[in-house]
Amino acid sequence: MFACIDLYRVFPKPLLTFLATSVLTVTPVLGFAVTSKQTVLAQSLPASGPKADQLLKEGQTLLINAVSQQALIQFQQALQLYRQEGNRLGEANALSGIGDVYYNLGEYPLALKAYGQAWELYQRLGDRKGGATVLNNIGAIYDAQRQYPEALKFYEQALKLRREAGDLAGEGITLNNLAGVYLNQGDYDKALKEYNAALKVRWLMGDRRGEATTLNNIGFVCHRTAQYHQSQGNLEKTREWYQSAIEHYQSALAIRRMLGDRVGEAATLNNLGFVYRNLAQYPQAHEPEAQKASLQEAQRTYLKAAEIYSQLGDRKGEATVLNNLGGVYFSQGQYVEALKAYERALTAVNITGDAPEQATTLSNIAFVYRTQADALKTKDSGQEIGRNLASIESQRQYLKALDFYQRALTIIQQVGDLKSEGTTLNNIGGIHISLGRYTDALQAYNRALAIYEKLGDLPGQGTTRYNIGVTYARQEKYHEALNAYKRAQLIYEQLRDIARRDEIRSVIQAIKSQQKAI
Predict the structure, then answer these.
(1) Are 25 and 370 in contact (CB under 8 A)?
(2) Cβ of 198: how many Cβ atoms within 10 Å?
(3) What percent of the chain has pLDDT over 70?
(4) N or C: which end of the chain has fewer CB within 10 A?
C-alpha cells in the first residue's frame, strides 16, 4: 500500500520497506530491510587557513548528524574563504560538501551543480580520490531517481578511479552501490557478483561494519533469488537459496552483535524473520511441523527485533517489525495475537506521526476484524440461538473493520495517495456488502472507479467493476449486474488475464441461466 524508505548517505543505514498491495482487500503488511546506497565525504583536507578548515570540518560533522541546513552554512562559508585564498582543493571539498547537503535535502539539481563544479576542480588537481567520491555521489543521485543506466555509468567511473587511487574503502562502497543498482533492475547474478567483490574488499580492510552491511545485502539477494525459483516451481533451488539467505543474515547478525550495532542487529533480525516466514509458505516444501517451526522462528526473530527497536526508542523500526509480526500471527489464524501486535505498531507509529505507516497499520487492523467477521458469518452452530449470536458478533466485527478502514481512508486522502484511496474504498465497499448496505457499497465502489479511471489503472477498474456487479447481483438486479460484469470482462481481455476473464464469463453464464429458469 505504501512504501516508506529511509536513506542515509554518509554511513550504511538499513532501509525499512513496507510492502502492502491489494485490490480487493489490504492484506497484512510485510517488510524487509536492505542497504543499497552509500556515499562518502571527501576526506582530504588541504593546507589552508585554520578558519576555512575548521568550517569544513564542522560542516562534515553537522552533515553526519543530519543537521543539513547548518552544515550548508558552514560549507558555504568555507567555500568563500577557500576561494579568497585560492585554495582549489579546499574549494572542491567544500563544493562536495554542499552537494552532499543538497542530496540529503532531495534538491538533486542543486546537488548535481555543486558536484559538477567539484569534479572539474578535482580533475584539474589530479585528485583521483576526491574525484571518485564526487562521481560516486552523482551516481547516487541518479540511483535515487531510478535512472539506473546513468547511475551505473557514474559508479563504474568512480570504481575505476578508486582502484587507480588504491582507495579500498571507497572501492567497497562503490561496489556495494553497483550491486544495489543491479538488484533494483532484477539482475541478481550481477548483484551477487558485485556484493561478493565488496565483501572481499571489506574483509581485506578489516572493515567489520561494512562486512556486516554487505553480508546483509547478499542475504537479501539470496532471498529474492529464492522467491524467483519459488515462482518457477523449482522447490530444490528455492530451498537452497532460502538457506543461503539465512546463513548470510546470521553471519551479518553475529558481526553486528559483536560490534554492539543494535540498529543493524534489529534490521537483520527483521530480514531473517521475513525469510523464515516465506520459508514456511512455499508449496509442498515442508511437512506441517517444519512449517510450524519456521513460523515460530519468524515470531522469535521479529519479537527480538521489536524489543531492540523499543529499547532504542526507534518507533518507526518498532512499528515495521510489529506489523510484520502481526502478519505472522495472522497467517496462523492467531487473530487475537495479530491484533495485539498491530495495536502496538499503531501506538508506535502514532508517536512518529508517519501518516502512510499509520494508514497501513489501520488497514491491517481492519483486515483482521474483517476476516474474523467473515469466519463468524459462515459459522453454523447447529442451533438457532448460536447462529443469532454469531450473526450479532459478526456485525460488530464488520463495524470495527469499517471504522478502521474509514480512519485509514482519511489519512490516505490527506497524503494524496490516489491508488491507495481506491484500494481502501474497495475494501469499504466490501464491508458494506457484508452488512447488506448495498447503496453505501455502490457509492464506495463508484468513488474507487472514478479514481482508477483518472489514474488509467485497468486492473483497479476491472476489480471495481466486478465488485459493482456483485453488489447488483446480491440485490437481484441482474440487468445492472450483467452490464458491470461484461465491462469487467472486457478489461480483463484487454489485460490478457485469461483466468479472470473466464471466471467472469462463468458468472455471466450463471446469471443468464438463472434468468431463464425464472
Answers:
(1) yes
(2) 26
(3) 87
(4) C
